[in-house]
């Protein structure tokens, strides 16, 4: 009976690793494509969660549960980084007059070098 449990556990961990790998690929795609800075911040936060998932599954596979302490520390650092990014987005929105989820023209992935606010109708910018 114990052999069946080990087989099921091995199969479940392989499926978990595969799902985490697919989630990692989609998240990296979202990180590169954006379109807004807020989307990229959410993707970075999700990458942290995927990393925590990898560490947790590794802890189950290796039966070395001290990895869980590392995952908890990563979760704390990830939370603090997300709060810092959110504060940065909020301050940037206040200083530039942009919405936090607004796209940047000429930013990363858009072919230009300078990031400037997209023109908004009715505010003197081009539509």
Tell me what the structure shows:
With 127 residues, the chain is mainly alpha-helical. The protein has one domain. It has helices spanning 2-33, 37-62, 67-96; strands spanning 104-105, 116-117. It starts with a helix and ends in a 10-residue tail after the last strand. Mean pLDDT is 82; it is low at 110-117.
Query: Helical residue percent?
Result: 55-70%
Question: Pairing-aware structural class of the strands and helices?
Answer: mainly alpha
Can you tell me the overall shape? elongated
Enumerate the strands of the largest sheet in spatial order, edge to edge or round the barrel.
Answer: 1-2
- The tally of strands reads 2
Largest pleated sheet: 2 strands, antiparallel
The radius of gyration over CA amounts to 20 Å
Uncertain stretches of 5 or more adjacent residues: 110-117
% residues in beta strands: under 5%
Task: Describe the secondary-structure layout.
Layout: H1 2-33, H2 37-62, H3 67-96, E1 104-105, E2 116-117
Antiparallel strand pairs: 1-2
Helix pairs in contact: 1-2, 2-3
Main attributes of the structure:
2 strands; two-stranded antiparallel sheet; 3 helices; 3% strand; 127 residues; elongated; mainly alpha
What's this model, at a glance?
This protein has helices spanning 2-33, 37-62, 67-96; strands at 104-105, 116-117. The protein is elongated, with a radius of gyration of 20 Å. With 127 residues, the protein is mostly helical.
């Amino acid at each position: 009976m114990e052999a069946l449990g080990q087989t099921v556990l091995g199969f479940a961990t392989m499926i978990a690793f595969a799902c985490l790998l697919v989630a990692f690929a989609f998240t990296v795609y979202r990180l590169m494509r954006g379109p807004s800075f807020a989307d990229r911040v959410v993707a970075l936060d999700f990458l942290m969660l995927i990393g925590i998932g990898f560490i947790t599954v590794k802890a189950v596979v290796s039966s070395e549960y001290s990895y869980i302490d590392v995952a908890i520390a990563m979760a704390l650092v990830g939370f603090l980084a997300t709060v810092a990014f959110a504060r940065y987005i909020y301050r940037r929105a206040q200083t530039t007059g942009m919405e936090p989820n607004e796209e940047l023209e000429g930013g990363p992935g858009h072919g230009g070098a300078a990031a400037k606010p997209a023109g908004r109708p009715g505010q003197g910018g081009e539509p």
